[in-house]
Fold this sequence. Notes:
Layout: H1 10-34, H2 39-44, E1 52-56, H3 59-65, H4 69-79, E2 85-89, H5 101-104, E3 110-112, H6 118-125, E4 138-142, E5 149-152, H7 158-164
Parallel strand pairs: 1-2
Antiparallel strand pairs: 3-4, 4-5
Helix pairs in contact: 1-3, 1-4
Amino acid sequence: MWGDKVMTEAAEAGEMLDGLVAEMDARQKTLAALGVANLAEAQAKGSALPRVVVVVDELADLLMQRPESETALIRLAQKARAIGIHLVLATQRPGSDTFPGLLRSNVPSRIALTVRSGQESRIILDELGAEKLLGRGDLLIRLSGRPTIRAHGARVKQGDIKRWL
Length: 165
């Protein structure tokens, strides 16, 4: 379908998101025809539907250039997990305009690195704390239904990535 394609233009990324919404709707029909509620159950019944992971590296930039992408992102965040489409959203500017409430409320797990203010921490995690991080790999993780925990990320260099490819 999309494979490992990297899209750098907002229009192209928006079209891909619209295509994923159509794929989500088609997958929901497939699951209904199989009489199952999620991808794992469909695969247990022999379906070959793969998981799809979408990474939006700069959400603020995408929404600034193509505001209509917000609708597709919200629909995917609301319904796509059960049918095997997963979103990873990242932004350097976690403002309420770049991570709107309806989208935020449908993202169950979140990670915050160092932010400038308590307001930005609240936007990402719904609580304070990320503004107090040291900025040397420490981060806060809030998984769905669990308390926020502090963790330390690993530094990955370009050479490390190339060795794994």
